[in-house]
Structures are given as structure tokens and as C-alpha cells.
Amino acid sequence: MGHSFEIHERAGFRYVDEGPTSDVPPVVLLHGMLGDHSNWAETIKFLSEKQYRVIVPLIPVYNLPLRESSVSGLAAYVHRFVAAIGIRKMVLAGNSLGGHIALLYTIQHPDTVSALVLCGASGIYEVEMGTSMLRRKDRDELRRRAAFTFYDPAHATEALVDEVYEIVNDRNSAVRLIRMARAVQAESVAKRLGEIVPPTLLVWGLNDRITPPDVAEEFNRGIADSRLHFIDECGHAAMLEQPNQFNRHMLDFLHEIVGIPEMSLSG
After folding, report:
1. Which of 119, 149, 197, 236 is the most buried (most CB within 10 A)?
2. How many angstroms separate the CA atoms of 158 and 51, rounded?
3. Within a 13 Å sphere around the CA of 197, how many CA atoms are in the beta-carbon half?
4. Is position 22 within any domain?
């Protein structure tokens, strides 16, 4: 735990970029609304050591212009990012809001996505969190809400509570949080699942209380080429709470769909 990664900058985008370039598409990981690249730390380390190139954009959930503060606005941001760093084909993975962004992106740009991985993705329905978080700004309430994300409340660390507290007490961030929470409800992809073409892996916490298991079942029914794995004693963020199981499912899927990276001689 506690891995730190270099943050690269190009054309105004900030991102983590680990692992070698190879003959297989890179893996692009999208974090959720109250998350950041560190949510994926164990997966970044695991996959890059297996010779996959792993890229994690820092998604500006609270910094986009208000008119772009929507799921489609963030999908457009990801599209600009991918173009800026020269990725033509990728494996796209997302947790929570990141999964919703990945779904919308894949519907809009199917040719650029070799495979899709979803974990606790919004896009069908989720137990509403965003706006009600702002009704109370006391730390105990925020701690309780943060703990709701996990099976084991110990994952709701003081550092996480501090981050959430900062967001909901910053007016600009709070306005965007409310707007984004509404956009998640408004920009449902429930009726568009038939448009998801790439092979899709669903890895879901059996104890997810935000996007419960029936959401995963609905994704699995609606997406033609999908496979679903549940992880027990796991909430909304499997890659954080049960990283070993999550990473194993992801590696098996990558081996099946895009293959094992052959090291390029140029490195």
C-alpha cells in the first residue's frame, strides 16, 4: 500500500503512466467522483509489473467549466486526453462515475476501445450520495457516508474524510458535485447497453450498497459480450477493498482479450 507514482503532464493533462509500451493496447483507468488515481494504486502496480502499460488520467471532476460538468463532459475530456497522448486503441476501465464515463465513451468511440472493465459503475442507477452529502458538513456524518462505500468501514480513513470535507466545503467544488450527481441520474445508459460492442468484464462487490449487485446483473444482461464476477466482503470499490481478487480477474480478462505483452526491443 501507499505506492506513489510520477504525475506526467502533457498539453494541460495530468496523468500517471506506468509500465512499458508493448504490442498490446494500454490500460486506461478512470476513477470516481470522490476519488483520484490513488484508488487504482494496487492495480497500477500489479498490471505494470505484468508488462502492461497503465495510464490513469487525473479527471477534473471539480475543475471543468460548469457547462461541461456532466458525464458526457467528462467523456469528452477523456477523448481529448487520449488524443493528446496519442492512444488509438485501449482497454478502458472505470469505477463508479469512472465506469459511467467509460460506458458513455465506449458508446461514442467504439473503435478505440478493445475491451471494457466496469466496477461499481453508475449509469443504470445508484443510491443517491452526492447532494445529500452536502446537507450536513459535520465530520461524523461525512465519515458515516464515506464508510457506506465499503464493506469494511476501516477503509473510510481520516485522510479520506478530510478530502471529502474539503470538497463539500469548497463552494466551487460543492456546486459541481451537486451538478455531477444530477448528471449521473440524468445521463442513464440503461437503454443503450446494446450499443456496447467490446468484450466487457464486470467485477462487483457483493456488498456494494451504492450500485448494488442487481445493477451488475442488468449490465451483464444488457451488454452482449460480458462476463460478471462478484467478490464477497466487498463494497463499491473492489480495486481498493479486495485488490488481489480484482487484479486477478482483470489479468485473466486481459490475457483472454488482448493477450500477454511481448516486450518491444525499443523498450
Report:
1. 119
2. 34
3. 10
4. yes
Pairing of strands 90-95, 27-30: parallel
**Distance, CA of 91 to CA of 27 (rounded, Å):** 5
Q: How many angstroms separate the CA atoms of 105 and 112, rounded?
A: 9
- Total Cβ atoms within 10 A of residue 223: 23
**Which distant-in-sequence residues (6+ apart) come within 8 Å of 113 by Cβ?**
89, 90, 91, 92, 105, 106, 198
Report how far apart the first and last C-alpha atoms of the chain are (Å, whole number): 27
Q: What is the mean pLDDT of each run of 10 residues along the chain (267 residues)?
A: 85 97 96 91 97 97 90 97 97 98 98 98 81 64 88 92 88 88 92 97 97 98 98 97 98 97 60
> Alpha helix (H) ranges present in the chain?
41-49, 71-84, 97-108, 139-148, 158-169, 171-186, 213-222, 238-241, 243-257
Phi, psi of 73 (to 5 degrees): -65, -40
Residue 92's domain is classified under what CATH number?
3.40.50.1820
In a domain, 264, yes or no: no
